[in-house]
């Protein structure tokens, strides 16, 4: 159950990161509201997951999921380019997250 909660919290990390970028310095109401709600939910989920998982592993997986999804979203929205190097490093990040799960 803790791993499911951690994955959902990682997804919410990507949501708040994207919303923060869309908020124009917290001046736009809707993205700012999404940012605040997703941030709180993401951190609460991370905290609850850390009750059953090692802190370092949980935090690394949370950050990895959030960072990977944020970059993928930017590539899909064509705000960042999908270079071979960027995709390779992203694949390494995802592989590292999966590796942490496997060895935990």
TrEMBL record:
Keywords: Antibiotic resistance, Cell membrane, Membrane, Transmembrane, Transmembrane helix, Transport. It is a multi-pass membrane protein. Its main location: membrane. It is found in: Cell membrane. The chain crosses the membrane at residues 33-51, 58-76, 82-103. Belongs to the drug/metabolite transporter (DMT) superfamily. Small multidrug resistance (SMR) (TC 2.A.7.1) family. Mmr subfamily. PANTHER family: GUANIDINIUM EXPORTER, SMR FAMILY PROTON-DEPENDENT DRUG EFFLUX TRANSPORTER SUGE. This is QacE family quaternary ammonium compound efflux SMR transporter.
């Amino acid at each position: 159950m803790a791993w499911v909660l951690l994955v959902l919290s990682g997804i919410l990390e990507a949501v708040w990161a994207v919303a923060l970028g869309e908020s124009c310095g917290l001046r736009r109401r809707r993205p700012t509201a999404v940012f605040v709600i997703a941030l709180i939910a993401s951190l609460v989920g991370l905290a609850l997951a850390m009750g059953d998982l090692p802190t370092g592993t949980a935090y690394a997986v949370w950050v990895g999921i959030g960072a990977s999804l944020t970059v993928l979203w930017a590539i899909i929205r064509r705000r960042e380019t999908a270079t071979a190097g960027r995709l390779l490093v992203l694949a390494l990040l995802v592989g590292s997250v999966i590796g942490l799960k496997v060895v935990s």
